[in-house]
Amino acid sequence: MDATYPTYQQFLHLGEAGLAASIYFVNASRNFGPEAERRNWGVRFALEVFQSRLGLVTRQLARSPYMAGDAFTAADISVTYALKLAERGGSVALGDAE
């Protein structure tokens, strides 16, 4: 097994289950919810979860150029999808590393 496989698996699944799942709640509330509910406690909690998991991405990119090391993989696609969803639909500002 490739030494980067566990990291690949971690970030492949983090993209959809960790990052995108949180931002779906934010997008739905902000774009479809009643005006008074667009920043409810669920949205705030989902953003906190997203930001916490975004820290994993930021730390990984400080160690390597891609999510699973030196090569571009499906983990990069998974994480990038979630980050773009957050940036475009959730109004999340991303840092330079992301």
Structure description:
By secondary structure, the chain is mainly α. The protein has one domain. The protein has three helices and no strands. The chain has helices spanning 5-32, 41-63, 74-89. α1 (5-32) packs parallel to α3. The protein is elongated.
Q: Quick gist of this model?
A:
By secondary structure, this protein is an all-alpha fold. It is built from three helices and no strands. The chain has one domain.
List keywords for this structure.
elongated; 98 residues; 3 helices; mainly alpha; single chain
Number of helices: 3
Helix-strand topology string: HHH
Structural class of the helices, strands and pairings? Answer: mainly alpha
Our measurement of the CA-to-CA distance between the termini, rounded to an integer number of angstroms, reads 28 Å
Largest sheet: none
Strand content: under 5%
**Helix coverage percent of residues?**
55-70%
Alpha-carbon Rg, integer? 14 Å
Count of discrete structural domains: 1
Say how many strands there are. Answer: 0
Q: Residue ranges: pLDDT <50 for 5 or more in a row?
A: none
Give the secondary structure arrangement, pairings included.
Elements: H1 5-32, H2 41-63, H3 74-89
